Amino acid sequence: MIILVIGLMSCKTERIGPQPVGNLNPALGIEAVPASLGKKYTRNFNRYTKVSTPNGGAIHIVAQSNISNEQILRCRSILEHFLQDYEGSAYGSDKAAIANQMAENNATLTLLNGRDDGRNRVRVPGQALFEEEIQVEGNDWYVSQSYQNHRDAAFEEILHLVHDTGIGVDGPNSQAGASPEFQQKIRAAQEHALNNNIWGMGADDWIKELTKENSLSQEYLAAVIDSYYGLWGAWTESSTHGMWGLYLAKTREEISQEDPMGEALMHNSFFHPYLTYNARIDSGFSGVFSLAFNSSIPYTHHSRYLKDITLLGKKDTDVKVNELNNDITGNGGINQVIFSGKYAEYQVETLGEETIVSDNMADRDGDNKLRNIEQLQFSDQTIDL
């Protein structure tokens, strides 16, 4: 069992000198670090983006030199996903107060070079997330799902930022929060999980550390959300547990069976059942990118919860749809979208530059909006657009 990689590191600041000018892209919202953040940030980071909040504030994201622009954009997308209103949910129908609270608490995500091994000692106020913990849909790290080398920790760490500075944490060492009622539910589920060997099993020293820091509920919630979005489904060292063996449920289905109070935090509570952002598929990817779950393709444990994607680059890339209502934009290559059934089982309509393919069978391929796609592949034929 690996525990140390999860532990929180001490916040020591070591200046590494001015960072080289990054690949700024104002069209994508990636700019130079504003001087208003202060020298601790302008000296140690070379790019900046933000999520604007309803009160006119901002949630800051700063990046060091090795972080790619696509990694920055993915982190921003995950943050926006957590803050996307979830209509009809118990605690997420209107997340404006949480976003505003994050801005008032000066919430900052710091994207750091390297990995969380102590070598990069730059520490400034903010939630740290390391280069080698940030996957991009379709890149080699995402496709291979090699947990020891490049585990996708972006959801965990960005959730910590939302939890600590927006939702709010009860108890000491905490900032003002906007949703104490939701935190009360999180705390109750965390205490139940800890007391009933659902989470934190065999990690007594780590639990003591978290207790001292008052970060038990944050780490528990991150374990639940990672399993909920399929981030541990491809982990081969356990067939039953998630989060390095510290959480009893490995998949979304297992959460409902093994941790009913954790499942209640997920179901119509705050977190969307699918990923709400438009994923930018890495320009180096070629072949078939599958949104449909396939147990022989490791990354599909996670990609099955995507619904909207944009293919980047010029390589010929195909897309296998899932049961959600997908929105798919092609790239500069030849792109084919793959469906499960026969052509006659779908309605295909082209309006201007957009083609809509609707499955007549419920809960199979959904309704799909397609742009810049050259071909549609059905089980009995392929048609050109």
Describe the overall structure.
A hairpin with a 7-residue loop joins strand 12 and strand 13 (367-371). The chain has helices spanning 39-44, 69-83, 96-104, 140-144, 147-150, 154-167, 180-195, 204-213, 216-228, 252-258, 260-266, 300-303; strands at 47-52, 58-63, 108-112, 127-130, 275-281, 287-290, 306-311, 317-320, 327-329, 335-338, 346-351, 354-359, 367-371, 375-377, 382-384. The protein has 385 residues and is of the alpha/beta class. It starts with 38 loop residues before the first helix and ends with a strand. 44% of the residues are buried. The strands form three sheets. It has a six-stranded mixed β-sheet with strand order 5-7-9-13-12-11. Strands 6-8-10-14-15 form a five-stranded mixed β-sheet, with no helix packed on it. The chain is built from twelve helices and 15 strands. Helix 2 crosses helix 6 (154-167), helix 3 crosses helix 6 and helix 6 crosses helix 9 (216-228).
Highlighted features:
385 residues, alpha/beta, six-stranded mixed beta sheet, five-stranded mixed beta sheet
Quickly describe the structure.
The chain is 29% helix and 19% strand. It has twelve helices and 15 strands.
- Give a count of the beta strands, DSSP E runs of length 2 or more: 15
Reading side by side through the largest sheet, how are the strands ordered? 5-7-9-13-12-11
Which structural category do the helix and sheet elements fall into?
alpha/beta
The percentage helix is 25-40%
User: Quick one: biggest sheet?
Assistant: 6 strands, mixed
- Uncertain runs with pLDDT below 50, 5 residues or more? 1-17
| pLDDT averaged residue by residue | 94
Helix-strand pattern: HEEHHEEHHHHHHHHEEHEEEEEEEEE
Q: Tell me the overall shape.
A: globular
Q: How far apart lie the N and C ends?
A: 51 Å
Q: Tally the helices.
A: 12
Radius of gyration: 21 Å
